[in-house]
Automatic annotation (TrEMBL):
Gene3D superfamilies: 3.50.30.30, Transferrin receptor-like, dimerisation domain, Zn peptidases. It comes from the Eukaryota. Signal peptide: none annotated. This is Zn-dependent exopeptidase. The lineage of its organism: Eukaryota, Fungi, Dikarya, Basidiomycota, Agaricomycotina. Residues 692-719 form a coiled coil. InterPro entries: PA_dom_sf, PA_domain, Peptidase_M28, Peptidase_M28B, TFR-like_dimer_dom, TFR-like_dimer_dom_sf.
Amino acid sequence: MAGNKPSAKLEKQPGTIPAPVVSSPAPARGRCLLRRTVLVGIAAIATFYYVGSLVCQINREINAQQGLWLAKAFGGHSQKGFKHKAAPFGKVAEEIFLAVPNPASALATSRQYATAPHLAGSEGDYKTATDFLALLQSELGISASSPLPVFPAGSSESRGATLSITSSSPSKPSAWIDVYYPVMNTPLDRSLEILDEDGNAVWAANLEEQADETDSDAGKYADAVPTFHGLSRGGEAAGKLVYANYGRKQDYDALVASGVELNGTIVITRYGGIFRGLKVKGAQDLGAVACLIYSDPRDDGTVTQENGYEAYPNGPARNPTSVQRGSTQFLSIYPGDPTTPGYPSYENSTRTEGTNIPTIPSLPISWANAKVLLDEIEEGGGNRTISLVNHVDDRVIPIWNTMGVIPGYIKDEVVVIGNHRDVAHCIRAAWVLGATDPSSGTASIHEVIRGLGVLLKQGWKPLRTILIASWDAEEYGLIGSTEWGEDFADWIDEHVVAYVNLDSSVSGSSFYSAASPSLSHFMRSAAETIAHPTKPGLTLWDATKDKGPLYGNHIDAEALSVYEEEQAQMAADDLGVNVLGSGSDYTVFLQRIGVASTNNGFKSTLSDPVYHYHSVFDSERWQELYADPGFLRHVAIARFLGLQTLRLADSIVLPLNTTHYSVQLDAYLDKVEQLRSSMALDVDFSSLRESISSLRAASVALDNEKSEAESELRHLIRRIARRKFVRDHIRKAWCKLRKIFRKPCKHRKHEAGEEYGHRGNEEHARPRAGHAHPASPARTIEGRTVKPRVGRWAGMLKEQREREHGRDSADKHVRGQKCHIEAHDGKDKELREAFVRAVKRVRAANKKLVAFERGFIHPDGIRDREWYRHLGVAPGKWLGYGATTLPALTESITFDANATMAKYEAGRLKVLFDKLAEEIQV
Ligand SMILES: *[C@@H]1O[C@H](CO)[C@@H](O)[C@H](O)[C@H]1NC(C)=O
Ligand SMILES: *[C@@H]1O[C@H](CO)[C@@H](O)[C@H](O)[C@H]1NC(C)=O
Ligand SMILES: *[C@@H]1O[C@H](CO)[C@@H](O)[C@H](O)[C@H]1NC(C)=O
Ligand SMILES: *[C@@H]1O[C@H](CO)[C@@H](O)[C@H](O)[C@H]1NC(C)=O
Ligand SMILES: *[C@@H]1O[C@H](CO)[C@@H](O)[C@H](O)[C@H]1NC(C)=O
């Protein structure tokens, strides 16, 4: 811009002698002018360039320091452990994390866990708990202690380990093991026979699975874990055999309607449709004396021998001797230790007679055995009886939950991530080898922990505290998670903002995600961020449409309709995220305490290699050959889980969409109205409908508030950071100038103190032992050298807070700060106050967001199963895995067909929703 001026001016100079073009100097005045103009031009360009690059640099630094600024915002004076100004945060942290999980590592973990069942007794399970503890210690930089931190539940150490997460503001990660003492059973002996009219056995079932060397692990351990039902009733029974299809409510209703007498019989049902314990409950309620449950190849979709597929281990079809073990707890009544409903099972807890376990014995059996029995019924052998023995040993057995904490800046908000570990244990759960259930989940969790470890080593610290839980005894009925949840219900209620669950990560080709509706958008967008495990250019979310490749001509129509019904019970919303029912560890968080939760994984479809659930054939070989060759699905799930954790922990405003939730409530009520019409009940829901719409209005207002609160805070952070940087640069320049004149910069000393923040935090600013921090305090991020330092804002905040609390700090450093701050102007004060207000505003919005899910909790719970207190969603009374929305209201219609009750339930919901709308009002 300035470039043309000199020549233009030159020509205008009057009375000058034309000079040789090159060598002759311009006349004095002209020369001077020219030089000045050129200098001004250069200076202008330089300044322009300098300012431009400064702005760029400032922006870059502010972006790189998001974490620091948010730490200051939410962590206040307790920024212990914040070591690097440019520690990874936000997108940068996500990218670092996502690069960590890898298939080789996941495969190694899977092989470690899934290739040998730990033998009877409790040692094997204890070992998996301490292995997990060691993993947390090594990856999260926690020093190993001796003796091991293994605390009996209820002891002051155990209580303190969890409660101190929020009460004492720990600065470093920690890990420990809580021991609970539930009543569980272990198998003794079993038999199953057909008796002739004289009581002689004419056939005795071989109850073991038959495996050979083709799958060497399965071959070795086929009879290592007896085929029995966890929490089944021990005993003996004999009676005539009655076939009850899937053992669903409608199946039993149909039998009763057609006049079949079940009293005194042994019922045989096939797996599928509902949770196995409820099949036994249905038989028990009708007077049956025992129950058998078998795996029917008809339920394997197109992957059957009939369609030409060979049976495992020679092919992908069902091994006919495979047996599905598993718990027969009445999951929809209550989960957890049967003898301590609603309270934790400490060693000396008072115990009651469990009402969520069967009073009749049961056995799981193979298709090979079932065929003999079904033929018997078909051929009219009704005169003969079946004799069944199921001896078990009921006793108190210790279980071990391994817990790990990564403290965040926001002390009182905690994100919990959990996976059950009870793995490969002969007696305890995870039936036999468990390559899928739960070792696939365990392998994915390992990758998540490794990723978080890498972030920690780079100076990352989450905004919110992250609690990692490795639950035990999930397979017996969600016992580890339920007992811990009951133990710390008040603490969870007060502090836990979300629960992220993983069970199995891979049993087939189809990706699914389930969540509280407030987390639907969050789940979907996280899944859309991650690459499809095998198809280039697609995302993990696209894998929701994936199916197995094994098709065939025959498929059982009923199995197909049951499969579709199951999908319907998971009823995805318009985003494609499913509703949470039960069957995994999120249950106590969501359905008893009201914590927004998520769950996800790859599941098997009707055209996938048959997943031998809870059988010895759920082996490492099957997993590597059929479920996830290459282990890329394991890795995708690890990435997804980690991304959920990072986003929940590090977002300023929690990514909970309450408006989406209130839109779903309308859809739930639509469903109820349909049921009402089909049952011809006279109930009016218009006032409940109005409450939902007020709730939605309140939520929309909250949406505005939360986005305004966040952008206000971000805006202030940029302003303050900019001021600080500009000031720093000016001071630096000033100091340089003084140096030239050999006058040392007086600010220097003060600045140093300011740069390194609070003296009291020195200890925490040092790299932790066991961490691979570079020895020098300077480090390189994205090619730039960054010195770790803690800025001054924390001091201002601390001061502000102390003033608020009316405390008079004697801290010399803070006094120094005050002087320094006052040296600056009222503008700083104004900004500081605005900043504190903005932080408060964000925190208030977050509180309301968390309160939303809590708002569904009713202290009286759901009728006949009061443990479940969430009136928005519960495992269906006769489903178990599947969800029923607005459960108390829906079931008053579907099961009781009682208008009085439906009115009462609609009233309860209305009161809840009105209260909730008031609570989230902005
Ligand atoms: C089954 O029959 C016995 C008598 O044989 C009777 O006492 C009992 O109440 C019946 N149970 C059911 C559920 O009908
Ligand atoms: C439970 O009771 C036993 C026997 O009275 C006692 O030895 C033990 O210390 C108690 N355990 C706890 C955790 O209180
Ligand atoms: C069952 O017993 C009845 C009479 O007790 C007899 O008539 C019938 O043939 C028997 N059925 C079979 C299949 O043995
Ligand atoms: C929240 O959910 C509603 C309803 O699905 C949707 O319209 C809105 O865009 C969502 N907001 C965010 C931030 O995802
Ligand atoms: C309907 O429910 C109400 C309230 O629980 C109860 O008093 C009444 O007896 C029930 N009516 C029928 C027909 O079961």
